[in-house]
Design brief:
Elements lengths: L7 H20 L11 H9 L21 E6 L5 E5 L12 H11 L5 E3 L2 H5 L15 E3 H11 L2 H12 L4 H14 L22 H11 L3 H8 L2 E4 L9 E4 L15 E9 L3 E10 L2 E10 L3 H16 E5 H4 L23 E5 L4 E5 L8 E5 L7 E9 L2 E10 L29 E3 L2 H27 L4 H23 L4
Antiparallel strand pairs: 1-2, 1-9, 3-4, 5-6, 7-8, 8-9, 10-12, 11-15, 11-16, 13-14, 14-15
Helix pairs in contact: 3-5, 3-6, 3-8, 5-6, 5-9
Length: 493
């Protein structure tokens, strides 16, 4: 798989920087050239890069941010609210650790003891993030997760990987990471180690980090750890002084860029990756996940907050069960009844009332497209309706069998648009009811008509109503009457 090319302006900037470095080396001190990375210039270039979501008609215009690539999604539906080079491969740095810790929670108990091997300790560069663990020291798995997420401890990431796989061949754990990433829907990733230390074969994308983030931020314990301001390791035989570590992420409570709606986060930085941030925030029922990559500090906090505010201000949840009319048919006759023969409402099908889609406030629900799939996830579902706008997925709604709702309405599985029926159901138009009483009455009427037809058929079969036979019978009856009258009168004198 070939690597996604970087935007033109960014490639030009990199070439200019590389040229300056070469010239500086060739010319030496006679012609000094400042070849150091220019963060402000990088931010300016990145702000000029196109934002693909802004190209969608009537979609709310997203902010121009300093990150080279970024994404904002709604966690439950997966709806992409903001997209900027979301499939461009980038170095993730320590944001890698959200996948490492997620795997650890899925495979380990929190009271398991993790021992630090020589490789785990000494494969970690001294100038990278660590908590100075020594060979032979031990931590519980819970303490390890705290060290990884709060202090981004690289040697602890190695130790956890070794604990899970039983080997210091980090590629074995990387294989687990790649397998899990694929399960989560990642498309542009390859992981080579558990901590994000620089490696040409270690990359991901904003989209993929958001997919991993959906699973990570669904874990309450992991989210809580990332928001902690400090961590304390109690003293042990192998750690007699204990440890105290402080969270340096500035977007968490107490930080310089603290965001009140934050659910969890993880930062990352290397010279090649620049500043990265994966975070989650929740407000007014919307749970948003934001990823910014190849940004600059502290601009990555500012960009993240700007994207969160954009999402909360311009998008809303839409409960389809309360809004949908496209699939309704008339609430009359055979398909509708407020009660069955037992006197209680029994729905046949219903739109799941917990499902919703995410829609920009600038776009009315009537402009949304939908399609039905009958390949439901489980036996309790009849179908799944997928909603989109201009080919942007907005979410799905399940069509359930035997829903709990007792409010009557109609749902047409043919998907034909029909006129909305009069309000007979307090406004709920998402449930099919079968009128069993009406069906039984109809069956009785049909049976009566059949019986009447049989009777008439028998009469027609046993009596002959031809005109000739009628005249012969009349004459014969008259002769009998005349003979009888003469007998009773006596002799005629």
């Amino acid at each position: 798989m070939s690597e996604t090319r970087k935007p033109f302006f960014h490639r030009c900037f990199l070439r200019l920087t590389e040229t300056a470095c070469v010239l500086g080396l060739l010319l030496g001190s006679a012609f000094p050239v400042h070849a150091s990375f220019d963060a402000e210039l990088a931010l300016e270039i990145n702000r000029g890069l196109p934002v693909q979501s802004n190209e969608v008609p009537n979609w709310p215009a997203g902010p121009a941010i300093g990150a080279e690539s970024a994404i904002l999604i709604e966690a439950q539906t997966g709806t992409i609210l903001y997209a900027k080079n979301i499939h461009q491969r980038e170095y993730p740095a320590s944001t890698t650790k959200i996948l490492t810790t997620l795997i650890a929670t899925e495979r380990c108990q929190m009271d398991e003891i993790v021992s630090f091997s020589h490789d785990a300790v000494f494969d970690t560069p001294r100038d990278s993030s660590h908590i100075a663990m020594d060979v032979g020291q031990e931590l519980t798995m819970e303490q390890c997760l705290n060290a990884i997420l709060i202090r981004s401890a690289n040697e602890v990431s190695y130790a956890v990987a070794e604990h899970i796989t039983g080997t210091t061949d980090w590629q074995v754990f990387a294989g687990i990471m790649n397998e899990r990433a694929a399960e989560l829907g990642c498309q542009d990733s390859h992981f080579a180690n558990p901590n994000g230390l620089p490696d040409d074969d270690h990359y991901t994308s904003a989209y993929d980090l958001a997919m991993i983030g959906k699973a990570f931020f669904a874990n309450e314990m992991l989210c809580k750890i990332t928001l902690s301001r400090r961590m304390e390791f109690p003293a042990t035989d192998k750690l007699p002084m204990g440890k105290l570590e402080v969270n340096h992420m500035q977007i968490v409570p107490g930080g310089s860029y603290a965001y009140e709606y934050l659910v969890g986060c993880k930062t990352g930085y290397t010279d090649d990756a620049r500043s990265c941030l994966v975070s989650c925030a929740e407000k007014d029922g919307l749970k948003l996940i934001c990823v910014v990559m190849r940004d600059e500090s502290p601009n990555h906090y500012e960009d993240t907050i700007s994207l969160f505010e954009y999402g909360f201000s311009n998008f809303e949840r839409v409960n389809v069960a309360q809004t949908e009319t496209k699939y309704n048919i008339d609430n009359t006759g055979l398909f509708y009844s407020g009660n069955d023969i037992f006197g209680s409402s029994r729905p046949f099908l219903s739109l799941n009332k917990e499902d919703f889609i995410v829609l920009p406030r600038t776009i009315p629900f009537e402009e949304v497209s939908s399609s039905i799939s009958y390949e439901a996830a489980d036996e309790s579902q009849a179908a799944v309706i997928s909603y989109s706008y201009q080919e942007v997925p907005l979410g799905t709604v399940r069509v359930d069998f035997n829903a709990d709702s007792q409010e009557p309405s109609i749902f047409d599985m043919e998907g034909e648009e029909r006129a909305a029926a009069p309000d007979q159901n307090d406004g709920d138009d998402s449930v099919i009811f079968v009128n069993v009483r009406f069906l039984l009455i109809g069956a009785a009427v049909l049976a009566g008509l059949l019986l009447l037809w049989l009777i008439v058929h028998l009469i027609l079969k046993n009596y002959n109503f031809s005109p000739r036979s009628g005249r012969r019978g009349w004459r014969k009856r008259n002769r009998h009457r005349r003979r009888g009258s003469r007998k009773h009168r006596g002799p005629d004198f």
